Amino acid sequence: MKRFILALLMVVTFSASAFAAGWDGVKEYTLDNGLKVLLMEEHKAPVATFQIWYRVGSRNERPGNTGMSHLLEHMMFKGTKKYGPKTFSQTVQRNGGNDNAFTSKDYTAYFETFSSDRIWLSLDMESDRMRGLLLDPKEFSSERDVVKEERRLNYEDDPESAMFEKMMEVAFLNHPFRIPTIGWMNDLTNMKVEDLKIHYDSYYTPNNATIVVVGDFDSGKMLAEIKKSFGNIPKGIDPPKVTVVEPEQKGERRLHLKKEAELPVVVAGYHVPDLENEDSYPLAVLELILSGGKSSRLYKTLIYEKQIALYAGGDYSMVSTDPNMFYLYAGAMPGKPVEEVEKALYSEIDKFKTDPVSETELTKARNQIEASFIMGQDSNFNRAMLLGQYETVASWKLLDKYVDGIRKVTAEDVMRVAKKYFSEDNRTVGILVPVKEEAKK
């Protein structure tokens, strides 16, 4: 279940990576055209990662134009005058590198990893497609069909994904977090290449982007080359800001989705704050205690002891531009009523409100989170990912607060956030009701 939740959110989670001493090695610059640059040298191996992050995702879309950010990500590989169709990734591979991209609700990011002597190729190629994308109508039509098929297979024909998507629409009444990153099928069908061109011109500007480079290079030379490649790109008009604030939920919302499936599934989502709020730290600790592996409370109770669920877990979308959701989920064991599974989920979360977590449990959770944060420190890619994520949704400097924030969490903090956010009135529940194909017909 957690797999499809993360896939739908498109929030790519990595082992957090930082120097044990902090992020003091990051050098920050802003070019005259508004392009933000974050450089972090690491000379342990002759490789480097180049990433460019645009502040645009499904959060910046509206009903009628959903799916544009994700489809534009696909089109960014379809060619410029300098690098023709399908030649971008071929050029990267011929030079021994790898590349990819991803879209989320908050951002769209592109990356390449090369040996140190080839990293300069990224500057030429990424600056070229920042403003030189062709957006050929035939390529657009073909790629739109690809995305529609992706949506059909991974969302509409997947009962769990379909149920989660519907639950997000119910949980968010006003905020664009209710929009799926891949877009709604009708909007994809009606989308025109002219619409995508407007989206591209609005958001793919230097003042709406951040470059992150981590690895084996000289910062002075790298900055000079970035200025040479990107500095002459004109600053664009600042994109429209998302000012929608989701109103406080004042009553439980429920939905039942009937789909051809083997077993029922329950998902319960609660509105919670993002990483700029101090409550994010005790919420992260609570999530680990509740659903962090086979020693977690949900696994031990629902799967091992009561044997009423095939799987159970939780997820907290902490790194988010706006307040998002904390999820609990479980798939019912054959023969077990979904109502019993749902009740057991709430029982576990309610224990945090009445019984302080033990010092052993708390220390274990804090240590696991901190260890995960530190152990990724050897990965240039992960460092760059975190810098890009944090800078795009808030500020990369919040990374320095993370370990201390986790260390300071007390049992009282965990109890306080449980009482504050995990109420029935703040809950949206989705139930997947299995039906047989014959019954549907």
Please, could you describe this protein's structure?
This protein is an alpha+beta fold. Helix content is 43%, strand content 19%. The protein contains 17 helices and eleven strands. The chain has a six-stranded mixed beta sheet, sandwiched between helices. The chain has a five-stranded mixed beta sheet with strand order 7-11-8-10-9, with helices on both faces. Strand 1 and strand 2 form a beta hairpin. Helix 10 packs across helix 16. The radius of gyration is 23 Å and the shape is globular. The two termini are 27 Å apart. The N terminus is likely disordered.
β-strand amount: 15-25%
Shape label: globular
Question: Which class do the helix and strand fractions yield?
Answer: alpha+beta
Provide the succession of SSEs.
HEEEHHEEHHHHHEHEEHHEEHHHHHEH
Distance between the termini: 27 Å
- Spatial ordering of strands, largest sheet: 1-2-6-3-5-4
**Level of helix content?**
40-55%
Number of distinct helices: 17
Average pLDDT taken over every residue: 93
* Number of DSSP-assigned strands: 11
Gyration radius from CA atoms, angstroms: 23 Å
The oligomeric state of the chains shown is: single chain
Main sheet characteristics: 6 strands, mixed
In short:
The chain has helices spanning 2-9, 68-75, 87-94, 120-131, 137-156, 159-171, 185-190, 193-203, 219-230, 280-291, 297-305, 338-354, 359-375, 380-393, 399-407, 411-421, 437-440; strands at residues 26-30, 36-41, 47-54, 98-103, 108-115, 209-215, 253-260, 265-272, 309-316, 324-332, 427-435. With 441 residues, the protein is of the alpha+beta class.
